[in-house]
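Weekly sync, protein design subgroup
Attendees: M.S., D.O., the rotation student, P.L. (late)

Item 1: inverse folding check
M.S. brought a backbone from last month's batch and wanted to see whether the design step gives back something sensible before we order anything. D.O. pointed out we never logged the input encoding, so this time it goes straight into the notes. Structure tokens as presented (296 positions):
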């Protein structure tokens, strides 16, 4: 059996399409893997077919114009392909905001950590510029939990934009530990009521050393546990375990988060190609500063 035949069988079990659409989708996926680009013109050239490239290109255009995707079915397909449903895993939140002419392509992505990468499972196109709202993040998590349950979730990782009392409280209510990175100047409220930057709690750390605080600290309206590590770059990377003793395993779970916004970025946001208005990447401002894990 050829690779395309096996892929077609797997896709048919989840998508229920006819042979022509399955052939087109499978061929396009294999071309995408070979090229690592999302440009339709180049995909048409790499697409296995006896037709000329212009005909292949028109076929791909018709596919995207006519096919309606069932994204719950796509999510189930991804969960099966990576065998996530029988495992425990960390979720990731990521947002990528690109510009195509005057149009903003702003996508909030929920993924699963897999071998240092984030595999997208669900995503939400935001009809606006800038950050997602707390309501939008909750809705994306609710969709995932409604489909696959809460049992396999070890926690959720996110960049420094994913803050907010309502969002954090909802995660705590769901008993989902959360790792959220933040800037060094993020303010916490001391027990005496004074505000101070989080970096002040770890200012004396040597490079490569870490510290777990023995008392919770208040950020916004949430009381959280904090731990921090001084990176080789001199930046501070901290996280808060779901309970005081959970230290080593969570540093391992963070993996490459100390050096990149997400674990090697989400696969949905890993490529830039401006020949088609599909997806392109916008880098962050580089102010990593501080990471925070806030546990339920």
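Designed sequence read out in the meeting:
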């Amino acid at each position: 059996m050829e690779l395309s035949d096996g892929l077609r069988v797997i896709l048919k079990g989840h998508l229920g399409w006819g042979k022509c659409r399955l052939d087109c989708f499978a061929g396009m996926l294999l071309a995408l893997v070979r090229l690592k680009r999302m440009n339709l013109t180049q995909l048409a050239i790499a697409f296995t077919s006896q037709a000329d490239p212009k005909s292949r290109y028109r076929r791909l255009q018709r596919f995207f114009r006519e096919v309606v995707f069932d994204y719950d079915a796509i999510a189930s397909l991804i969960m099966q392909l990576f065998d996530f449903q029988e495992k425990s895993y960390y979720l990731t939140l990521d947002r990528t905001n690109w510009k195509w002419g005057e149009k903003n392509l702003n996508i909030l992505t929920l993924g699963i950590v897999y071998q240092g990468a984030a595999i997208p499972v669900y995503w939400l196109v935001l009809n606006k510029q800038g950050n997602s709202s707390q309501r939008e993040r909750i809705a994306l998590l609710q969709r995932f939990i409604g489909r696959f349950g809460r049992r396999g979730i070890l926690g959720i990782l996110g960049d420094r934009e994913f803050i907010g009392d309502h969002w954090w409280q909802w995660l705590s209510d769901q008993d989902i530990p959360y790792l959220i990175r933040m800037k060094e100047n993020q303010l916490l409220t001391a027990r005496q009521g004074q505000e101070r930057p989080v970096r002040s709690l770890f200012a004396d750390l040597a490079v490569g050393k870490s510290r777990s605080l023995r008392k919770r600290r208040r950020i916004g309206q949430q009381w959280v546990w904090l731990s921090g590590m001084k990176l080789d770059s001199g930046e501070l990377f901290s996280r808060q375990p779901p309970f005081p003793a959970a230290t080593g395993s969570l540093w391992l779970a963070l993996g490459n988060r100390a050096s990149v916004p997400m674990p090697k970025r989400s696969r949905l946001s890993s490529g830039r190609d401006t020949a088609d208005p599909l997806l392109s990447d916008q880098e962050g401002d580089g102010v990593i500063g501080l990471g925070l894990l806030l546990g339920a």
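Discussion: The first strand starts at residue 89 and ends at 100. Confidence is low (pLDDT under 50) at residues 245-253, 255-296.
Action: P.L. to compare against the previous round before Friday.
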